[in-house]
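Hi again,

Forgot to attach this to my earlier email, sorry! This is the prediction with manganese (II) ion bound. I've pasted everything inline since the attachment limit keeps bouncing my files.
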Amino acid sequence: MNKIAILGSTGSIGTQTLDVVASDPGRYEIVGLAAGGNTELLIEQAKRFRPAQVCLATKEAAEQVRPFVPPGTRVLYGEEGLVEIAGGSGADMVVTGIVGSRGLNATLAAIDAGAAIALANKETLVTAGHLVMERAAAKGVPILPVDSEHSAIFQCLNGEDRASVQRIVLTASGGAFRDKRREELADVTVEQALSHPNWSMGAKITIDSATMANKGLEVIEAHWLFGLPYERIDVLIHPESIVHSFVEFVDNSIVAQLGMPDMRVPIQYALTYPERRRTPAARLDLAKAGSLHFREMDFDRYPCLRMAYESGRTGGTAPTVFNAANEVAVARFLRGEIPFLSIERIVEAVLERHTAVANPGLGEIAEADEWARKAAEAAKG
Ligand SMILES: NC(=O)C1=CN([C@@H]2O[C@H](COP(=O)(O)OP(=O)(O)OC[C@H]3O[C@@H](n4cnc5c(N)ncnc54)[C@H](OP(=O)(O)O)[C@@H]3O)[C@@H](O)[C@H]2O)C=CC1
Ligand SMILES: CC(=O)[C@@H](O)[C@H](O)COP(=O)(O)O
Ligand SMILES: [Mn+2]
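Structure tokens for the complex follow:
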């Protein structure tokens, strides 16, 4: 049986991973589950999947859970607990389904323990891609993409020589406001921004999708996962989210991966790679889909995407700062403190004040991350 640990088991990626696990009885053993504060759901998951250890974000949440999990379950908490679940649960594979750069230490711990990474937590690669990829290569640990676009590219590249890739193209739905002009965005509400046209996801990524920061994070994620320069990573708007991304080869052939917008497909592909198995996801009926649409990206309409490319090209701590400022600005928008368009204004203001450190170590990444968070909290909305 494959031993799986899930970081963020109560979230969108986590619950869909458990759906995949439950759909294939006897194939997987859940050895660790980590959540933030959803104690009720974590207790339910612990009773059903019987992991040897679980983790909550705080001691208080851990104490709430302790009396209700099966006898013998270790109940951990905090960053230390998360790192223990990732690196000390005996998992063959760790699914990184928590949000934000706080997933970095746990991802590194899993790599150090020799576990394969099913990577959903894109912020980890954005904040310290060189360190994660170097560590994984040194340990011979595979980093398997869960993000739908990256899973698509990974599937299209299967067995192909990298030298024959002309470019990869990530598709973008356009998010909640894809049919609005910039002038119409000043007064949009949190509720409107959380209404993604195609995918049901956690709050942070749904807002990132509306600002196009999500695609920016994904461009940087693709740079690290596939070892391609930014000149060969493009983005195209595709409102239906049926073509999950594609690769254009030097002979001008395009290979794309299509499917219904259902994360259980890329999650399962990472879990069973290189094998393909049946999934609980619906089949795509192209005759019913009828027509698919594509339109060019407008970088003036989506400054967060432009800033992500610029940060990626600058490298060093620039992507760390882009990510941290964006995380804080999105949290502030979700708390109702700032209007939607202030997200991009805050990210821009923080990036302007930052001088990137080249080839940063973990300490310099942590410093840049902390500085950017403080600057973004203090920035005028
Ligand atoms: N959702 C999707 O379809 C996709 C998501 N991704 C990426 O996957 C990651 C997860 O996204 P998503 O599932 O949508 O997010 P959600 O907000 O739905 O879930 C986040 C998870 O992280 C947990 N969590 C929060 N704080 C902590 C903490 N301090 N310690 C441990 N766990 C914590 C939450 O726990 P709790 O709820 O108990 O507080 C929850 O289980 C993100 O990086 C996102 O960009 C990528 C592609 C698609
Ligand atoms: C499901 C998934 O992978 C998300 O990252 C999704 O891509 C978000 O959609 P858009 O960013 O294209 O709106
Ligand atoms: Mn994606």
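The first strand starts at residue 2 and ends at 7. Residues 147-149, 218 surround manganese (II) ion (ligand 3) (CB under 6 Å).

That should be everything now.

G.
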